[in-house]
Amino acid sequence: VRSVRYGQVQSPSSAQVHARHDLLVWFEICELAPNGEYVPAVVDHGTELPCRGLHLLHQGIQRRIRITIVHERTDDLTWRDVRELVVGRIRNTPESEDEENDSSVLSLGLFPGDYLEYPGDDRTVFRFEAAWDSSLHNSVL
User: Fold this and answer.
1) Which part of the chain is the Kinesin-like domain (predicted)?
2) pTM here?
3) Which of 15, 66, 69, 74 lies 20 to 30 A from 56 at CA?
4) Residue 141: is its pLDDT beyond 70?
């Protein structure tokens, strides 16, 4: 999804690859719990849809999208900042439709990211969150 804030990303002029990294990225939709913490929404897995989950979002509850990026520790790759998280073009088929002027594209407000450390795990884990409060914007999402 193209950013409405920064425009199209320019590709580098050189085709030379300096480094390759395998990233594991997972997304969580979190809802505000009564204790004031954001907890991941529950996902139900059905037998009729293999490898697909179904989650129900509660109307009127503040949400955050939490993104965690994991990769092998290396000096070549250091996370300093995430500039923008854009969501949009939600679809119900695997085919991608390239629509230039999609009004459902939404840029979310970001919270600063953190490095997480787990005992015995020498991988780099970087996590950040974005506010997704559907009552604050006029979006079909």
Assistant:
1) 37-141
2) 0.72
3) 69
4) no
